[in-house]
């Protein structure tokens, strides 16, 4: 029985910041951001969007009459949780009108959605007549005028996992590497993350090399068995650094093809930024919708990394007619329709906060046209609205 991703949905807020403008404002050479880091724009979330609303908005794109009633599992991977106890997945379930699903939230930095995907794989294997909804939804925050400011972003990716998938069939062989390290973390008392940037990059590459070596030893496959490799992308240059460590295993022609497809996988991330748990799958979606060089039967490699740290390398096979499961024109239009913020608007929006004492608060919704929004707080409860 084949199990894998049947559909993928994308949501990102309708405002963004141009990073050339940010570089000029911060006294930085723009090439450092657009070439050195590999980012052009970053999505900025208003108060009316959080990890719950973005998750639900992304899921709206993949749910229909054929799969809605079959959803038996809903997993939300996020490190932007809104509650220390109640899972954001339960809010999402209600907003989507789903019933009687196992619904919970997973946290392990940017690995959360992959943990959800692997859990969904096992669930569908045990319940082949049911489907799972896996979502990665996050707002990446590092603070104004910090080294990580340029690698912020916001968005969500939703995936329907099923037997006999129409998009990507996951192969059973996976390899995992995990260690207790301090490369990135966010204590409960902080709204922004702490990161050791250079160290984190070194660990990311080392973890990739470890899982890649284990995968080769386990399966006997090599880089020549892959048409494309996708990576978790906190910024688009990071995945490239890892890819370059194994490119010498391929011929020059194959290297050029892999690099070209890697660039296709980064196009959405360059415009949206880091979305933590969803970043790997944003890269996969970008590859499938932006590359014209892929065919059914092609093997795609996926490298997931969550700081702290855990990594996993796994693979999938593109299915016949996979192109029909994509919505590239819709996503292109969504990105084009966003409004560019001025620097002052960005800084104001970044510093806007919900009350922390549970007092009543109403959010101005005039500039947010998303189907699902957070409209305010009352008596310590978040009030969501589905338009």
UniProtKB/TrEMBL annotation:
Similarity comment: family membership: Belongs to the thiolase-like superfamily. HMG-CoA synthase family.
Keywords on record: Transferase
Residue ranges annotated for the Hydroxymethylglutaryl-coenzyme A synthase C-terminal domain, each copy included: 259-349
Catalytic site: 79, 110, 232
Organism: Latilactobacillus graminis DSM 20719
Pfam families: HMG_CoA_synt_C (PF08540), HMG_CoA_synt_N (PF01154)
Signal sequence, renumbered to the chain: none
GO biological process, one term: acetyl-CoA metabolic process
Protein name: Hydroxymethylglutaryl-CoA synthase
UniProt cross-references to CDD domains, sorted A to Z: init_cond_enzymes (cd00827)
Gene Ontology MF: a single term: hydroxymethylglutaryl-CoA synthase activity
Binding site for (3S)-3-hydroxy-3-methylglutaryl-CoA: 29, 142, 241, 274
Keyword Transferase recorded: yes
PANTHER family referenced in this protein's UniProt entry, alphabetically: 3-HYDROXY-3-METHYLGLUTARYL COENZYME A SYNTHASE, HYDROXYMETHYLGLUTARYL-COA SYNTHASE
All residue ranges annotated as the Hydroxymethylglutaryl-coenzyme A synthase N-terminal domain in the record: 2-162
Origin superkingdom: Bacteria
